[in-house]
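Task: sequence design from structure.
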């Protein structure tokens, strides 16, 4: 069933992945060790305190049985099914955390751009008194926003803002922001397209 065994040990304990061979499991039994799995799915044999050198530190059989070890630093499961249940629970927690980060990023973006917080669809606004940075009068604009969680846990936000000017020209600005799941600095990619007027006349209500 398993293609390859990996195992080893020292005077502090034994380990094997994915499961112990009969030989190393027999050694564990002879030393009165405790058979457990850690948070990475590695089988371990925890030795009794009596045979662990006093000058060395290791989680012992007694530590786990009495639950007196650091549960935040180490995870041990005496039943493989409990280990699988824990993994399933942690995967669900991770999924919820990623969804929470995605929604928070989406909310912050919408608040910043003044978009409708209850919709991801494009929202059109018109303000004939607004002046663009280039000095052109903006006669209309539309904005759209979408947020996607990738398989690796990163979040990708995509924004498209289109503006129409009084002289008939328009501008499209697309922004893609990738937020890594490891908390590192987000990556931002921007692309702006300036489109000429579709006809020789100015905006239709000024022609």
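Answer:
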């Amino acid at each position: 069933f398993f293609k390859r065994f990996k195992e080893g040990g020292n005077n502090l304990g034994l380990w094997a992945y994915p499961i112990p061979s009969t030989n190393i499991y027999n050694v564990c039994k002879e030393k009165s060790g405790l058979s457990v799995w850690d948070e990475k799915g590695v089988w371990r044999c925890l030795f009794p305190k009596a045979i662990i050198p006093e000058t060395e530190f290791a989680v012992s059989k007694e530590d786990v049985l009495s639950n007196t070890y650091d549960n935040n630093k180490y995870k041990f499961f005496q039943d493989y099914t409990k280990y699988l249940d824990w993994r399933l629970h942690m995967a669900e927690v991770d999924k919820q955390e990623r969804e929470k980060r995605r929604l928070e990023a989406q909310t912050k973006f919408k608040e910043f751009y003044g978009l409708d917080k209850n919709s991801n669809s494009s929202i059109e606004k018109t303000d004939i008194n607004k002046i663009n940075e280039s000095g052109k009068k903006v006669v209309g604009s539309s904005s759209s926003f979408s947020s996607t969680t990738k398989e690796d846990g990163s979040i990708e936000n995509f924004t498209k803002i289109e503006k129409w000017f009084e002289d008939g020209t328009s501008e499209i600005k697309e922004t893609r922001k990738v937020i890594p799941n490891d908390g590192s600095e987000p990556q931002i990619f921007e692309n702006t397209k300036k489109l000429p007027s579709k006809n020789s006349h100015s905006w239709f209500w000024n022609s």
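The chain has a mean pLDDT of 80.
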